[in-house]
Amino acid sequence: MTTMSNHNIEELCFTAADSSDEGTLETLIQSLRGLDSLKVPEVEAGIEFMLEAWGGSIDDSVPKSEFCMNLAMLSAPDTPILRISLQKAFSKLKKTQFLKSAIVKATGVRDASVDPKTAAERFLSIESLTSSITVFNPAGQRFGEVTQLDVMTSEISVGWRGSAAIANVSLEAVARDMILLELSYDTLSLPDLAKNTTLSSEEWRSKMRDAAPIDIDDKLLRQMAVALADESDIPHESLFEWWSVSSEVSKRPHTRHPSEARTIHELHTILLAFGKSEMSEEELSVMGETLKSLNFGDSPADSKLLAESMAMLSECLSPGTAAEICAVIASKVVFWPENPSKPANPADLLPWTEISVKHLVDLAELTLACHSTEYLAELLLSLSLRCWNAITQVVGADAVVSALKSRANTTPDALLWIWKNTARISRELSPLLTTKAIASSLDGASSSPAATQLKKLFVSDGNFHKLLLDNADADDMMQVLFAIQACKSLRLDEKQTLLVKLSSLSPALKKLLDGGEGERLFSEVSKNHLRKQKEDEPKVSSLRSMSEMSANLKDLITRQIPENAAAIAHARSYGDLKENAEYKAAKEHQAFLNRRAGEFERAINETLPLDFSTINPGNEAVPGSTVTLVINGGPEKETYYLLGAWDGDPEKLKVAYTSALGMTLNEKTVGEKIKLPDGRSAVIESVAKLPDDLSRHLANTN
After folding, report:
1. How far apart are the first and last CA of the chain?
2. Burial level of 171, CB count in 10 A (0-12/13-18/19+)?
3. pLDDT band at 144, cuts 50/70/90?
4. What angle is formed at CA 90 by the lines to CA 28 and CA 552, rounded to 5 degrees?
């Protein structure tokens, strides 16, 4: 590419830095694929700027996460920001039940010796792991089948072909050493080379490549073929002769028709190559009989294949014949539930969410061939946000508006669509966006991208806040306060932030808070939250300590670990690793840094930040309070500041509530007798708020 083209790509990176538009990201990734190398100054600068600008938004965005994966697969320059972005992408795109920490370890994304492309490939392999999937171990030259997955221990049980023994291997070993194939273990074989087979070696290789979640080269495919030949006692001479013959020799004399499919997988494959060719009445009749005989299966993967197949098939049907085909399959299709407003199994609707937007429109149009407009509009209310615009253009905005106005409970996806389309489609829906509706929707929804995005809007977006206040009754701001207080999906600090922002826009709410109602309400909430906290619930700590831990983790990932990786590489250049003291020291430091990074990440994930200035403890010692003790009946007194899990500093009388002394003081009331960890007896003389200067210090995140 020319220098000008590289400059254009850099500009496109700058545009994408402020956008999550799928079209922009697709254009950018296609442009990057056209380069001989991404190691071009302008391109590297643009990519780094874009990833830094995205920051934490990557783990809130599927398009950005998928872009990071594609970037790694293009062998983008190995930088700390790319590795951090990949970790966020893994978190967003993860669908397996394996623990995030186990996945990160298995991919090697934090290991400087594992390049980002390899880490991304390992993640794709992990995501394809299911019971009964076929595996190939190149080192052992043998095939096996996954028989069991233990997501808690990250152990995989594999039964090797030709052996009754079951081997337990780690998730890391599977991702690192094995090739996964979405093929039937029982039917995995070579064609019968003794006969005049219609399956060429090129077609066999294509089949194997399609079955693998990552790219596999001819060398590895040849290893697989040899292993299968040895199992079937096929002479290597016959195998290599078949291997070298061009597919033109054994190509089928005609393109297969969809009606020739014997399985849903075959139907999908044939339709991909079939194109838009309207079927004759005779072909349609045969197609109907084929669909009647097919076993569609009930797995999510089969349902997705069926949805995509029907979307592609719709392009071959006239409006009149589409209804006939739908009538044949309607009873077998799980993504057309009997009750669209309340599907018996929400998982049945996943095909709508997972197929491409192009197929989504075709599937929606096909749905109208066998169901009413009202049915499709009702069904839309249970689908994810990515489906809304595509299906709305098929069903019509009026039908969607009507369905929304009649629905009592609204999903985060629906509320987000209303927010993004109120001005463009219908202002009738604006009143549905209320504080109570948002809080109820978040509490009633499982974790999803839409719920995360809606929560972010709820807490942080000024324009969203203005609309919520416009839809609220100015004479009854207490309802706004109650809705926020009752929202279980918001942390205490998020509720505080939201109230501060809303009160800056609403004099009525500010007056209510200035009157002490907010302090009374949230002090009680804080105490109740801490009183009821169980051992398996998140800890709490100050905003300052949480900020410091995040800064320490960032420094480890972006500076210390890369510097250590460079030190290892430098020490390795001296050779003779057994006697290389610098290499050993650098490797030991690497283990320490990785362990330390893991400790910081766990602490951050397990801890909630809390602004202690909001705590009004009354007569009970809770984190965020000053506790004065009378020792052994007096006159000696001691005063401590009872703080969060990571705020302890004994020399400054700061006591973490998780320490021995902190657990002794926590939840004790004025006048209560206690026994200190050093054996002394004491009485709680008083409990008060923290000093203002200490509260400000703990709330300072700079």
Report:
1. 44
2. buried
3. confident
4. 105
Return the SS3 of 494. helix
Q: Look up residue 592 and give its two tokens.
A: 């320490």
pLDDT tier, 533 (very low <50, low <70, confident <90, very high otherwise): very low
Residues 6+ apart with CB under 8 A from 184: 134
Instruction: Confirm if 135 and 142 have CB atoms less than 8 A apart.
Output: no
**What's at 347, amino acid-wise?**
A
Contact 51, 78 (CB under 8 A): no
**Do 159 and 147 contact (CB within 8 A), yes or no?**
yes
CB of 404 closer than 8 Å to CB of 381: yes
Beta-bridge mates of residue 541 = 609
CA distance 430 to 415: 10
179-181 and 539-542 beta bridge pairing? unpaired
Cβ neighbours of residue 83 closer than 8 Å, sequence gap 6 or more = 109, 110, 116, 119, 557
325: how many CB neighbours lie within 10 A of its CB?
22
The pLDDT-based confidence of 195 (bands split at 50, 70, 90) is low
- Return d(Cα 415, Cα 320) in angstroms, integer: 36
pTM, two decimal places: 0.44
Report helix, strand or coil for 265: helix
CA distance 365 to 69: 32
